[in-house]
Design goal:
Layout: H1 17-25, E1 67-72, E2 77-82, E3 87-93, E4 98-103, E5 110-114, E6 123-128, E7 133-134, E8 138-139, E9 143-148, E10 155-159, E11 164-168, E12 175-180, E13 187-192, E14 198-203, E15 208-213, E16 218-224, H2 232-239, E17 246-251, E18 256-260, E19 265-270, E20 276-281, E21 286-291, E22 296-302, E23 307-312, E24 318-323, E25 338-343, E26 348-354, E27 361-366, E28 372-377, E29 382-387, E30 393-397, E31 407-408
Antiparallel strand pairs: 1-2, 1-31, 2-3, 4-5, 5-6, 6-7, 6-8, 9-10, 10-11, 11-12, 13-14, 14-15, 15-16, 17-18, 19-20, 20-21, 21-22, 23-24, 24-25, 25-26, 27-28, 28-29, 29-30
């Protein structure tokens, strides 16, 4: 739900050949992860994405149709694309303002989150991935996004406008309890710690991220994010929320002052070792890096205009960043959209792919075989299929594509309910 965030320090050691031999003979041992009760085990503590590789499909998705599901916010529909032909093979009505399509914790159902912005008739529409057909919608308060508790016992409904997280029965969607998040305006996307004890949720309209204790059911703290995170003077100003920009540097010799203001964090994704979180920021045009344990910002990575969606490669080595090409909520077609590829280990952008002719890549996911990155075109009413080897892109016409876009079937996963994918992570 992650959007980026990791801070690894490269150490250069001057040692002799004997030292190198000793290191080769003594591999680094990564401590086993002790997850919360009933959470699936983490087979590889160094790579929590190890179970999302192409040859590890869950038996739960064996009968699922290979389809791309695209929520269309303006028409209140979902378009279904056959990835083999790039053709829309079905379109059906769902609830009002569909935002994301999310797989259930057991991978047996896809849920369309219809948050009905500004109204009281929010709902979730189930889709059977074996048939690609919708079922009867269930009324749910303000479901902007949907995640799942690490043990699978609750659906976590992100009630954005209501500033709270609603924990519901994963099958009936009956409310069981809530966690209020009054200091997180626009609570949005999330990702989870490797042991399932906490999660980070972005606060879109506060320029911050909030840390949720999933064991004790409470907000731990909220952190303001900024490319100027190392500047105490600037962060002190940003800590007092204001819509107005604050001065970063006053450089009259260069024509005047440089200003900044709170950003607009979007997606969140955790590093393969579970220690660091990456947070895309569509106003800062890049990815914040946050240490999960200390809950401190440790870095910032410039990517592209309107950084929004974050997706790990199937082998867990790379992070794809969908840069929308605009800092606006709505904008014109054929913008400066792009995809940046970050190396998890170095926290550096290693590739940058422009959308030919312009575009607006937004939310999506990686195909089951890892060969393609599928992204919705927010302003362009299309879906992009991007080759993860070359960066070449192909377009498939949707109707009014908006947000999350799951690919199915996909590999089994160690994560739970990240929006924009079916049976992923």
């Amino acid at each position: 739900m992650n959007p980026v965030r990791i801070a690894l320090t490269a150490l250069v050691l001057s040692i002799g050949s004997a030292g190198w031999l000793a290191m080769a003979q003594s591999p680094v041992v990564v401590a086993a992860i002790v997850p919360v009760p009933d959470m699936p085990p983490v087979p590889d503590p160094a790579n929590l994405y190890s179970e999302t590789v192409a040859d590890r499909l869950s038996p739960a998705v064996e009968d699922a149709l290979p389809r791309i599901y695209v929520p269309n916010r303006r028409s209140n529909t979902v378009s279904v694309i056959d990835p083999a032909t790039l053709q829309v093979v079905d379109t059906f009505k769902v609830g009002r303002n569909p935002q994301h399509v999310v797989p259930s914790w057991d991978l047996r159902t896809l849920w369309v989150a219809n948050n009905a912005e500004g109204r009281t008739d929010g709902s979730l529409t189930p889709i059977d991935p074996r048939t690609g057909k919708p079922g009867k919608s269930v009324l749910v308060d303000d479901p902007y996004n949907v995640y799942w508790s690490p043990d699978g016992k609750n659906a976590i409904i992100v009630a954005e406008e209501l500033k709270r997280l609603d924990f519901r029965n994963p099958r009936t969607m009956k409310l069981e309890y809530s966690i209020p998040t009054p200091k997180c305006d626009g609570i949005n996307h999330a990702d989870f710690s490797i042991d399932g004890t906490f999660a980070l949720f972005t606060c879109e309209f506060d320029g911050s991220v909030t840390k949720i204790d999933l064991v004790n059911r409470r907000v731990i703290d909220t952190l303001v994010l900024s490319p100027y995170f190392a500047r105490l003077d600037i962060m002190t100003q940003l800590a007092v929320f204001s819509k107005k920009p604050v001065t970063v540097l006053d450089l009259p010799e260069l024509g005047g002052a440089i200003y900044t203001m709170r950003g607009m964090p979007q997606d969140v994704r955790v590093s393969p070792d579970g220690k660091t979180f990456f947070v895309a920021d569509m106003m800062a045009d890049g990815v914040h890096v946050v240490d999960g344990a200390s809950f401190k910002q440790t870095g910032f990575i410039n990517t592209g205009v309107g950084a929004h969606g974050l997706y790990p490669s199937r082998n867990g080595k790379l992070l794809y960043v969908a840069n929308r090409g605009s800092n606006k909520v709505w904008d014109k077609r054929n913008g400066k959209g792009s995809v940046s590829v970050i190396d998890f280990a170095t926290q550096k952008v290693v590739q940058a792919w422009r959308i030919p002719g312009g575009g607006s890549p937004d939310m999506g996911n990686v195909s089951a075989d890892g060969k393609y990155l599928w992204l919705s075109g927010r302003f362009d009413d299309v879906v992009y299929r991007i080759d993860t080897g070359s960066g070449a892109s192909t377009r498939s016409r949707s109707t009014a594509s908006r947000m999350g876009l799951p690919c199915g079937p996909s590999p089994a996963a160690t994560r739970w309910g990240t929006p924009g994918t079916f049976a992923r992570s």
